[in-house]
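Hi,

I'm pasting everything inline rather than attaching a file, because the server keeps stripping attachments. The sequence lines come first, and each chain or strand is labelled.
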Amino acid sequence: MSTEAKIEIDRLMVSTSPHIRCDESISKIMWSVNAALAPAALFSVYNFGMPALFNLVLCIVVAVATEYLILKWQDKPMVINDGSAFLTGLLLAMNIPANLPWYMPLAGSIFAIAVAKHTMGGLGFNIFNPALIGRAFILASWPIAMTTWPISKDMVGKVDGLTSATPLGILKQQGYQKLVEHFGDHATMYKSLFLGARPGSMGETSAILLLLGGIYLIYKGYIKWQVPVIMIATVGVLTAAFGGDPLVHMMSGGLILGAFYMATDMVTIPITTKGQIIFAVGAGALTVLIRLQGGYPEGVCYAILLMNCVTPLIDRLVRPVKYGARR
Amino acid sequence: MGKSFRGGIHPDDRKRYTAAKPIQVAPIPEKVIIPVRQHIGAPCSPIVKVGDLVKKGQVIAEAQAFVSSPIHASTSGKVAAIADYPHPVFGTCMAVVIESDGQDEWVEGLPLNRDWKTLEAQELKEIIRQAGMVGMGGATFPTHVKMAPPAEKPIHTFILNGAECEPFLTADHRVMLEQSERIVTGMQIGMKVLGVSKGYIGIEENKPDAIAAMNKACSGIAGLEVVPLQTKYPQGAEKTLISVITGTDVPTGGLPMDVGVVVQNVGTVVAIADAVEKGIPLIQRVTTVTGGAVAEPKNVLLRIGTTFAEAVALCGGFTDKPVKIIMGGPMMGMAQRTLDVPIIKGTSGILVLSEADTNIGPERPCIRCGRCVDACPMGLVPSMLSVMGERGLYSVAKEQYDLLDCVECGSCVYVCPAKRNIVHYVKLSKAQNAAAAAKK
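And the predicted assembly:
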């Protein structure tokens, strides 16, 4: 037997199978979602200028810093670079008006991370989407500021003043005809909604850029196409059924942002595809209910948060089909 | 496109290291360490003493229990010791150490020349039992027990598992290429024992040469059919294999015989053919020695009792620092703490993984991404099994999350971005439930 061969061993690792893993990780997923949101986030800076950039940076820095302090205080592994707190900050910023005074996003970002995420046990244990809780917290605390929308760059000079109602706000208060008049004609209205030249939360305006990022995430397998497609389709079908303009509703408000980036937040939605479809239908239906019948012009945030509540119930009732029970 | 099942994963199969390498016959080792327990069931007791001279093929340990399997000397020589030695499955186990005399002399009367067609099913079954036959895919369940189903469970289908879905391993692949006719003979013997007329050979599509070789070997033989299977792990897991080939699922808690099926491994049927036609007991096997840290990966025909260290030396030793040494494949194999463990009947591979091969990060909380749910071939919710196991809620795992249906294939762990050790929690929960049941 050959003895020259090198066969020394030193401290072998002994653990349960399997012994190989794929190269996905939480950081990879989180940073990919951040990357997917980047075009729409950058567009918000183009659209609304320096205040948008300031609030983006503020929300992200505060979210990451809050996470750092809490992990430090609780003596947990330091994982602030995994991209999840960054994502919460980014999503929160994209869900608020660009010109919000600094202390509001600051408070919202702290609340999102400290209360919505870490009181529940941190990453993986939160019941509600932290960014949406942050938004709901700001909306409840400063309702006027949260419903005062700066006009987009393209609108400067075309309309009076520097603030305007959102398309859904105009629709709610003044009706469909006024909305069309606001943009000029039907074609301009659809085009503006699709490209993003409209007032609204700073990251929600450009349907096209949000869609591109969403398609990237579907391609990477980080989100399932069923959730955004079914949620948006549900909104379209129900608004059409109740006499609204489905295209306006599908491209307005936070629907595309919510459907692709928050109704797909894996931590807070059901774990099975079937369960996720139920979630998407529910979130779409609640959105329409709030928009058409509720007091708010927009309902995506609360619709998703309400569906987050029933996620554990859906997971309890909707299970994969077990081997042996199929045939 | 070959047949397939729900779920599963597509890891890089990394069979390229050894798939094209013919089986190399290893030289006779200077000594062999032969554990008295190489199977599921009752351990054997040695029937030789220190100082005894033994011949190749001689029985050196046996047991009275039905679910057990005798152990034979894998070469001729002197019994140097009977003591506890490291064991790849049980940690330590009593073993008979034989110092080779270099003669490699057969026990009297072997090998012989016998025609299986002239033997009755009962005689064949007894030959298989006496030859120490066990499932060589890694499970090591005694073959004669599998071949003796109770009368109320009639068997109608024999499945040969040539899927070899574990990454890295190519032993079965090489056997199918080099010994396809022996496989067919072994299969026919198995089918005669069971009295079945239908036999399938399931092979993953990443082995087109094996599919061709087996098709050729089966041509003209009634009842045998090669079934190409989609390349996907765990295609070769018994339950998925059965439902893919027969269209019937094995019921929860049941065995293949509950749906009239017996599954055998490629190596096992070749060993059956050798035992019946030549009288040769199970004393050697083909093992793939491979991994990112092995200098010259190979498929080697090794005597039972050869140490891992010798097998690795045969393959040029290490090129990189080994982080994990595994008996079997990377998905379901067992991590070893030393190279002093011997090759046993179920050693399908010796896998030496470097740091880069393993990709094990720190475990993070479950983020409920659902990848494990999509990957699970059993239709379970692995994430919940891991959470329940982590928190000690073992009975909840069993009662509400179908713990006992888990086949521990590891697909969920492979895809988990949080690097959670789900299979670890499953094994822990199963053991705790068993312990709780035993207490009652």
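DSSP finds 14 helices and 17 strands in chain B.

If the labels don't parse on your end, tell me and I'll reformat.
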